[in-house]
Amino acid sequence: MNLTAALRATRSRSTYLLALRPNAKSWRPWLAPLAALLIWEACAHLPGVDPRFLPSLEAVAARAWEGFVHDDYLGHLLASLGRDLAGFFLGGLAGVATGLALGFSPLLARVVGPTLMTYRQISLFAWIPLVSMWFGGGEAGKIAFIAMAAFQPTLVNSWRGVAEIPKSYRELSDVLLLGRLGFVALIALPCALPQIFTGLHSALICSWAATVGAELLFNLAPGLGGQMNEGQQMFLMDKLLLCILLLGSVGVVFNLLARAAERRCLRWRTL
Amino acid sequence: MIDSLAPSATNALEISRVSKRFLVAGRPSPVLGGIDLRVRDGEFVSIVGASGCGKSTLLRLILGLDTDYDGDIRIDGAQVAGPGLDRAIVFQDHRLLPWLNVRSNIAVALRHSALGKGEKAGRVDELVKLVGLERFAEAWPAQLSGGMAQRVAIARALANRPRFLLLDEPLGALDALTRLRLQNELLRIVRQGGTTAILVTHDVDEAIYLGDRVVVMRPDPGRIAAVIAVSGAESHDRSAPEFIRLRDRILALLGVVRSEADASAGHGLAPVA
Predict the structure, then answer these.
(1) At what angle do helices A73-104 and A224-233 cross, to 10 degrees?
(2) Is the same domain home to B119 and B232?
(3) Cis (ω within 30 of 0) for the bond into A114?
(4) To the nearest whole angstrom, how far is the Cα of A160 from the nearest Cα of chain B?
(5) How far apart are CA B133 and CA B151, in angstroms?
(6) pLDDT tens across the length of chain A (271 residues)
(7) Is the residue at A14 inside a domain?
(8) Pick from A177, A186, A267: which is nearest to B112 by CB?
(9) Of B118, B136, B161, which marks where a domain is finished?
(10) What is the side-by-side strand order in the sheet with B70-75?
């Protein structure tokens, strides 16, 4: 009974997250960004607007053409993506593992839980000086920082997913004599899976945000953040805006991929 | 059906002086006060009573989910120490696992069965057919109606051919038509397997229709007010006068005033204009 209610609640939550379903009226979510681009374009052509501060869309497109064809923007984009995914996998794996351990072991949850919740209160950026001292400002430091960003949401969601398994399911497991292993495999993990996915999904977004942060604040290296630093120092506003558009586009693609994976793995839920 | 009853006049399940307390707001509050009940092999016992009379608690104790009580619950003379495959339950909420299809939901119960892989598959097929869901064997629980889901739950409970089938208001959440249909089906399934069934219900008609005996429970603390035998003649015609008389008697025992005097008064309850 209360499970179906819970499922309905999660379903309605996920529908508002992104209405980018192929079967829904899929053009609607694109209206707002399209309008923003139009307003930008209109403003850029207003008399008295300095194109050095607000370049037009054409200027940004020209920069993109030049960058991807004659310069190595693709390389920078791939460098950022590689870093992001490395951090996401390391942090996500650690987060899911720790969350499951906490969910299954009340003792561990009592001993370590409060500390981990306090850790969440500390801004991620507060760790930058420390991480760069421990791991260096190079690749290792950046990936460690991104992993920390992915760790938090996966930890909390996996933990909650297991901890919130309805009591009625535990009772069912007892009645069917499933045993501890059977309970974990047949009930606990599938029951927690939607919540684990929610964690991984937000970890994907958090780690992408952290990737840019790391690239802006740690040592200069190939990547979008580095290009933004360069754009700022050389006063290339078109380059800065291009980088922001690229960051957003990657985010949208991540979102779509995550939702597709979720829908595939949780088919029983979306019926 | 007759020959499964006749030779085994022995008590399969004996509940003796069972009392149980819960802590409510830090204070012990009795839910069951001295329950005595004997159930014979192959018998269908209905338990009726208002909410909070401890009916479901009693089933939990028989299942062995809770062993913290006073008194004895014995099966063939041996104290119940925990859950076992000889006892299965159908809950009011079907409690199917939404991530498993119908077949797998039934097969879950066979996890510790001694059957081989092929035999398990055969048993599941058999059960799917028994509850008439052949066309839905691969369906997800979310695709089933309430009645179909409850049929799957019944099939799951029968998977290990349990000696005792405990039914905790299994039809309580269903619409009236589905409920009537499933009552017949339940009766057929239980008779066919020779299973001993204990049904907890709010519905007096259902208790009489299905039960060989009806146990009437009263609350504060939960205790047995009466045990009424239902003979075959009364039980299968819901509009027979005997059936209605039995129902009224049980309703009176439950404290719902509907004695013969009221019935003959006819419109005694009609609002005064």
Answers:
(1) 130
(2) no
(3) no
(4) 19
(5) 8
(6) 344 444 454 444 444 444 445 555 678 888 998 999 999 999 999 988 888 888 998 999 999 998 898 888 999 999 999 999 999 999 999 999 999 999 999 899 999 989 988 888 888 888 888 998 999 889 999 999 999 999 999 999 999 999 999 999 999 999 999 999 999 999 999 999 999 999 999 999 999 999 999 999 988 889 999 999 988 898 989 999 999 999 999 999 999 999 999 888 887 775 5
(7) no
(8) A177
(9) B161
(10) B27-40, B11-24, B70-75, B78-79
| The domain boundary residue, chosen from B161, B187, B214 | B161
Q: Can you tell me whether residue A216 is helix, strand or coil? A: helix
Which chain A residue's Cα is nearest to B111?
Answer: A178
Structure-token pair, residue A150: 């992915």
Token pair in block for residue A55: 């370049």
Please, which residues 49-88 of chain B have a Cβ atom closer than 8 Å to chain A? 63, 65, 83-85, 88
Same domain, B250 and B172: yes
Which CATH number characterizes residue A121's domain? 1.10.3720.10
Q: Which residue has the tokens 């797998």?
A: B104
* A111 is a domain residue: yes
A266 contacts in B (CB within 8 Å)? 99
Among A172, A191, A269, A270, the strongest candidate for a mutation testing the B interface, having the largest count of B CBs within 10 A, is A172
Query: How many domains are contained in chain A?
Result: 1
How many beta-carbon pairs below 8 A join chains A and B? 56
- In total, how many domains does chain B have? 2
When scoring B57, B67, B97 by the number of chain A Cβ atoms within 10 A, the one with the most, hence best to mutate, is B97
How many angstroms away from the CA of B84 is the closest CA of chain A?
7
Together in a domain, B210 and B77: yes
